[in-house]
Specification:
208 residues, little secondary structure, two-stranded parallel ribbon, 2 helices, 2 strands, 2% strand, elongated
Length: 208
């Protein structure tokens, strides 16, 4: 990912610069000649922690077929379910309490995430990077879907490129579906609302 890529959702470029700097720092860490599974200090399941530095400094329990890829769970501190956190830096420095099954799969999917992630969520390129809100099941799908989100998101919500990027309002189940549907939203969104591209982008009002 590049500075230009993040600049698409950051008008003044300040946040884009910070995210780009984080990425550069991560790439420097990935270049260190440190080695993989032997560095894990927590319980690791079958076919997990495969790849250079995949679980280096990881302290969270990792279930089966998870944390596979370059620095996939480098510095992770949360519990990781089955078939999760796969691909490069998918759960790099994640500190969320738990990541469900088949979640956080994709490059930088849950990079520095601090929220709980349900099953089948945070899929794609950096969908939950920097997220601090709790995310339900089947939510935050696609490119930057919930990047830097700070609020709770229900089940089956925030699907689409940047659907809930920089969101600060609570999102109910089945809501915010579409490209930038709730991008930069600060209002509380009820269930089944904000369906369509950009429909609630920059919204500040509560929508029950």
């Amino acid at each position: 990912m590049t500075h230009r890529m993040f600049a698409r959702f950051s008008g003044d470029g300040t946040r884009a610069s910070r995210l780009a700097a984080q990425l550069m720092l991560g790439l420097l860490v990935l270049a260190l000649p440190l080695l993989l599974v032997g560095s894990a200090v927590a319980k690791v399941g079958r076919n997990s922690c495969v790849g250079i530095n995949a679980c280096f400094l990881n302290t969270g329990t990792v279930k089966n077929n998870s944390c596979d890829g370059l620095a996939a769970c480098f510095g992770n501190k949360g519990a990781v379910g089955n078939n999760s956190c796969n691909e490069q830096a998918a759960c790099f420095e994640n500190t969320g309490a738990s990541i469900g099954n088949a979640s956080c799969d994709g490059q930088n999917a849950c990079w520095e995430n601090t929220g709980t992630v349900g099953n089948g969520s945070c899929l794609g390129v950096a969908p939950c990077q920097g997220n601090s809100g709790n995310i339900g099941s089947g939510s935050c799908i696609e490119f930057l879907a919930c990047v830097e989100n700070t609020a709770s998101i229900g089940n089956g919500s925030c699907s689409g490129n940047q659907a809930c990027a920089e969101n600060t309002g609570t999102v109910g189940s089945g809501s915010c579906i579409g490209v930038a549907a709730c991008h930069n939203n600060s209002g509380n969104i009820g269930p089944g609302q904000c369906i369509g591209d950009h429909v609630c982008e920059n919204n500040t009002a509560d929508i029950p």
